[in-house]
């Protein structure tokens, strides 16, 4: 009868060992997920900060007009535009 108790005890230890191994593996996977999500949160917080800075910048009508002029070559009535083209490939004398 003692041999059966020993066999059952060994089987219980094996089952518990397998269960602990599976829990440890799952724990490691969850830690990796937490790390990647933390990185994603940090990236989104940085992006959010930049967007808030842009919103603050563009709330000023002068800045908005300046960007409109620079990106879309917009000009107000009566305003003239000067385009400066840098020299390229010419040898200086």
From TrEMBL:
Protein's name according to its UniProt entry: Septum formation initiator
Transmembrane annotation, as ranges: 6-23
Keyword Coiled coil in annotation: yes
Q: Which UniProt keywords apply?
A: Coiled coil, Membrane, Transmembrane, Transmembrane helix
| Organismal lineage | unclassified sequences, metagenomes, ecological metagenomes
Q: Per the database entry, which stretches of residues form a coiled coil?
A: 20-54
């Amino acid at each position: 009868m003692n041999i059966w108790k020993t066999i059952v005890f060994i089987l219980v230890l094996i089952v518990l060992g397998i269960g602990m191994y599976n829990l440890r593996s799952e724990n490691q996977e969850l830690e990796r997920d937490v790390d990647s999500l933390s990185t994603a949160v940090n990236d989104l917080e940085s992006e959010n900060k930049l967007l808030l800075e842009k919103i603050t910048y563009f709330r000023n009508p002068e800045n908005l007009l300046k960007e409109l002029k620079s990106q879309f070559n917009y000009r107000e009535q009566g305003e003239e535009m000067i385009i400066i083209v840098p020299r390229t490939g010419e040898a200086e004398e």
